[in-house]
Design brief:
Largest sheet: 8 strands, mixed
Organism: Cyclobacterium amurskyense
Number of strands: 8
CATH class: Alpha Beta
Number of domains: 1
CATH topology: Rossmann fold
Radius of gyration: 17 Å
Strand content: 15-25%
Low-confidence stretches: none
Pfam family, one: Abhydrolase_1
Order of helices and strands: EEEHEHEHEHHHHHEHEHH
Protein name: Lipolytic enzyme
Structural class: alpha/beta
Number of helices: 11
CATH architecture: 3-Layer(aba) Sandwich
InterPro entries: AB_hydrolase, AB_hydrolase_1, AB_hydrolase_fold
Distance between the termini: 32 Å
Shape: globular
Helix content: 40-55%
CATH superfamily: Alpha/Beta hydrolase fold, catalytic domain
Amino acid sequence: MPTVKTNGINLYYEESGQGEPLLLIMGITAPGAVWKKHLEYWKQSFRCIVVDNRGVGQSDKPPGPYSTAQMADDCAGLLAHLKLDKVKVVGVSMGSTIAQQLAIRHPQLVKAMVLMCPWARCDNTAKDIFKHMIDIKARLRPEEFSRYIQLLIFSKASFDDEENYQGMLEDRENAKNDTNPQPLIGLEGQAAACMDHYVLDELPNISQAVLVIGGEEDKFTPPWMTKEVATLIPNADLHSYPESGHAFHWENIDDFNPRVNNWLLEN
């Protein structure tokens, strides 16, 4: 299992595919394996590097709080280990905040970015959602926590679709049987990074091409957050999926995978 010592921790990563390097950074609570349905498509065009962020999966889970700057430095150490620069980056949710910091702190490493459901700052509502997430993790069974996350990230249309809903039930059962769940300490560290992320002043300095994507019915990181990021970055394009939530990339996967793939090939 490939791990690299970076920024004081052991960071787990996997590689697949060939072509230009593409770093994939996952969101809060989730290991890199959650990229699977997108990785299967993108690895046909790119050398995909999937990482488990600190606090989850097979990477170290030290006590927090973490910061998005710290987690970006984790990724920078991985890229140094792989002797890579000017990589393309896709980050989702918390992963998008890490990607922003990677471009801010290590601009020489980033060629272009796709920022999925991003934010540049948290308002009080967002902070309370992250705090509530910690409270629920501490009190509920894994399958109950999984249901809460689904309520947070999927749109009504996904719950109304019986095939999609059956998939949600299976995911809850998988959470119940997970032999390596994220510990509370890891979630607490990641949530602190999400809540404290603030880059309003730095985003205008990002010069790389950026594609910002959001869901118009996202309850977790609502459209104003996505639009604010797209407005502040000079070379950003914005795409919004109607009737879609935080998990728009699963709800619209047949459009999303080729859309991102083609944009990355062109940039």
